[in-house]
């Protein structure tokens, strides 16, 4: 049997048996790696629409024909046209999916993924050919509208949880997250998170099983990664650390690239929380830029911290973590002053600000008296130092015990 006929009959058989996994596998054959299929399609000897309609009912026949046309357009490097076909394939699928049960969720996931990838390629083509200026609607923005249809169908399903389409929502959300991050439209992520936190959403975001169902771990890892990054933007460091830790812990060991991507944000957020990654971990995942930074923050070495921040400034900016790394300087200050305090006799409660300035000067950090008081006031406010400032006498007054509380204790409170 010829490749095109194989695909059509595989799709027809999966639909007849309501086998979503088989339908997704059949659609997966429509790929650039299927040389025999492409050769047959580009030869122009087969009427794809007639063949599809002879085996499949509407709108599945139209969906499949659009999918095959999209592959031909990709092969011809016409990515804008390929996107248009892929969008129509998704739309045709939606017209039957919203009336159907959840059996075809795997097929929806496959089509949504192909839609997002087609939109990225189309935008790259449009960017190269763009002349002049002005804002244009990108194909990824158009894809958002189609993906939102998938989201609405899934999240509003009223079937019992065991067979609900809601189990397909997380995959759609992750695709939307990727587009929103790429287009820098992060405020649009809030409604997605709100839907997940809603009462009707399956409460299985840590891998739990409910009524015999659970979210695939790959989808959970992706979701927690993006929610972790969004939490960082809102300065919710403890929340971010929890989400990113889950993502790193459950990301497969073989996926080193993804684990390194997670660590780009997990390491600096832990720095802000006063938790330091080991040299072995950073070396394993090829993140040498964090080794001296962790050492600097831990030791309170402010000069080393500034030097490393300057050296890797462009890298941190490109990764979107510069401001986060910079915030770790607060912990470096705290650890510096703690080291100075440790050199005093036990029970000391008053530290001269002028003396602290001399210590900073000796390490090459030049701050005037008012700047030092401002740093100390910030540390006191955040709970990193227990005490108060006597501006009139130029003193930092701390408690006799636990003047520099454990960072875990402070962050927990």
From TrEMBL:
InterPro entries: Csn12-like, PCI_dom, WH-like_DNA-bd_sf. Residues 221-403 form the PCI domain. GO terms for biological process: poly(A)+ mRNA export from nucleus; post-transcriptional tethering of RNA polymerase II gene DNA at nuclear periphery; transcription elongation by RNA polymerase II. It comes from the Eukaryota. It comes from Chrysochromulina tobinii. GO terms for cellular component: transcription export complex 2. GO terms for molecular function: double-stranded DNA binding; RNA binding. This is Pci domain-containing protein 2.
């Amino acid at each position: 049997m010829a490749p095109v006929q194989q695909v059509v009959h595989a799709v027809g058989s999966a639909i007849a048996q309501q086998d979503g996994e088989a339908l997704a596998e059949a659609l997966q054959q429509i790929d650039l790696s299927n040389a025999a299929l492409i050769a047959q399609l580009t030869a122009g000897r087969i009427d794809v629409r007639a063949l599809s309609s002879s085996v499949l009912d509407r709108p599945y026949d139209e969906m499949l024909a659009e999918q095959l046309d999209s592959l031909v357009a990709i092969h011809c490097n016409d990515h804008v046209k390929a996107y248009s076909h892929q969008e129509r394939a998704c739309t045709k699928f939606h017209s039957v999916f919203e009336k159907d049960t959840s059996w075809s969720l795997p097929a929806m996931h496959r089509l949504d993924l192909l839609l997002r990838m087609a939109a990225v390629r189309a935008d790259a083509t449009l960017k190269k050919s763009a002349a002049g200026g002005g804002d244009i609607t990108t194909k990824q923005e158009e894809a958002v509208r189609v993906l939102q249809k998938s989201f609405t169908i899934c999240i509003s399903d009223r079937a019992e949880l065991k067979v609900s389409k809601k189990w397909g929502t997380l995959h759609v959300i992750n695709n939307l997250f990727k587009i929103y991050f790429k287009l820098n439209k992060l405020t649009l992520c809030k409604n997605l998170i709100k839907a997940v936190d809603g009462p009707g959403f399956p409460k299985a975001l840590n891998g739990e099983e409910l009524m015999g169902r659970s979210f695939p771990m790959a989808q959970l890892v992706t979701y927690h990664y993006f929610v972790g990054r969004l939490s960082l933007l809102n300065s919710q460091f403890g929340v971010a650390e929890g989400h990113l830790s889950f993502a790193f812990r459950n990301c497969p060991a073989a996926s080193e690239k993804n684990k390194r991507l997670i660590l780009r944000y997990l390491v600096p957020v832990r720095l802000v929380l006063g938790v330091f990654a080991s040299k072995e971990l950073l070396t394993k995942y090829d993140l040498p830029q964090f080794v001296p930074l962790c050492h600097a923050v831990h030791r309170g070495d402010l000069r080393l911290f500034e030097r490393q921040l300057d050296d890797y400034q462009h890298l941190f900016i490109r990764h979107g973590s510069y401001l986060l790394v910079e915030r770790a300087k607060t912990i470096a200050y705290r650890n510096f002053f703690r080291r100075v305090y440790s050199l005093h006799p036990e029970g000391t409660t008053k530290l001269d600000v002028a003396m602290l300035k001399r210590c900073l000067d000796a390490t090459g950090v030049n701050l005037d008296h008012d700047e030092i008081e401002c740093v100390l006031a910030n540390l006191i406010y955040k709970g990193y130092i227990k005490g108060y400032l006597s501006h009139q006498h130029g003193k930092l007054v701390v408690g006799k015990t636990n003047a520099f509380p454990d960072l875990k204790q402070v962050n927990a409170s």
